[in-house]
Structures are given as structure tokens and as C-alpha cells.
Amino acid sequence: MRHIISILIENEAGALSRVAGLFSARGYNIETLTVAATQDPTLSRMTLVTSGSTEIIEQITKQLNKLIDVVKLIDISEFPHIERELLLVKAHAVESGRDELKRLADIFRGRILDVTAGTYVIELTGEKSKLDAFLDALGEERIIEVVRSGTTGILRGEKALSLSVA
């Protein structure tokens, strides 16, 4: 089962490598990983997506909590949450295909960020399934390059991953 683990971590050199090293040493796969500073410059928020049984995820969270850099973590997939991923795709856009690409981007609420004589760069945000559906609709023959940010997420409602709330 897919899990989204959000971690508040010390914003220090080597913190990311210690988390990644934990996964590597135990043979767990990180499907996506995003990290950025929070409103507190001493902390970063790391969001990683991994898969495993309940027992494996419990073992992962226990091991992560033992790392000195980890301040707090939560598996947000256990609670109502919002998740998003950013996709940038460069696609062939020539002649009549240009209008079709623009319509497709509009349908998926994408934005065309760059236009050249033969290409469009399209930006899309949303859940993984939406981005996958857009790429399927686009078709491999049109795709020149794809860049994805990886999943990030936030809890809905009053619950939050912060130092002040349990």
C-alpha cells in the first residue's frame, strides 16, 4: 500500500542523506521525495512516498524517529489530506497538433509556459493519477521530455504537522 510520510527535519547538511541512507540500508524504496525549508528556517519539511505493508511502514516510522535530525513525522495518508505533484512536459507542437495540445492542456487545467516553432512546455499540477492520465492522453510520440516534482501533501482541517500540535 502507498504511504505519504511527512517529516519535520533539522535544516542541516547531511540530514537528507541520513534519511535516504536509512531507506537504502533496509532495502526500502522511496518512490518520490520532496524537501524544502519551512516557515522556521531551522526546519525543513520532507515528504516521501513509499509502499509497504502496515508492519513495514511502522518499522520505517520507528527507524525514522530514531534519527537525530527527525523532529516529527506523520503518515498523512492515514488522514484526510491534499496531495499534489508538479509536472513539466515538453511536447512536439507543430501545425494542427498545436491546437489539439492547447485544448488538451485546457481540459487538464494545464498552462503552456513556453512556445517555440515546434514545441510547447506545459505545466500541470495535481494528484499522480491526473498527471498520468494527461501523459497517456498526450501520447509517447509527442513527448520530448518529462520532469516531475514528486508528491507533496498537507493534512486537511485543524490537524497539522508542526512543533506545537501533537
UniProtKB/TrEMBL annotation:
SUPFAM superfamilies: ACT-like (SSF55021)
Record flagged with keyword Nucleotidyltransferase: no
Pathway: Amino-acid biosynthesis; L-valine biosynthesis; L-valine from pyruvate: step 1/4; Amino-acid biosynthesis; L-isoleucine biosynthesis; L-isoleucine from 2-oxobutanoate: step 1/4
One annotated Gene Ontology cellular component of this protein: cytosol
Entry-linked InterPro entries: Acetalactate_synth_ssu, Acetolactate_synth/TF_NikR_C, Acetolactate_synth_ssu_C, ACT-like_dom_sf, ACT_dom, AHAS_ACT, AHAS_small-like_ACT
All residue ranges annotated as the ACT domain in the record: 4-78
Gene Ontology biological process terms in this record: isoleucine biosynthetic process; L-valine biosynthetic process
Sorted UniProt keywords: Amino-acid biosynthesis, Branched-chain amino acid biosynthesis, Transferase
Pfam family of the protein (one): ALS_ss_C
E.C. numbers: 2.2.1.6
UniProt catalytic activity: 2 pyruvate + H(+) = (2S)-2-acetolactate + CO2
Gene Ontology molecular function, alphabetical: acetolactate synthase activity; acetolactate synthase regulator activity
Top-rank EC class of the record's enzyme: transferase
Subunit structure: Dimer of large and small chains.
Protein family per UniProt: Belongs to the acetolactate synthase small subunit family.
Annotated function: Catalyzes the conversion of 2 pyruvate molecules into acetolactate in the first common step of the biosynthetic pathway of the branched-amino acids such as leucine, isoleucine, and valine.
UniProt protein name: Acetolactate synthase small subunit
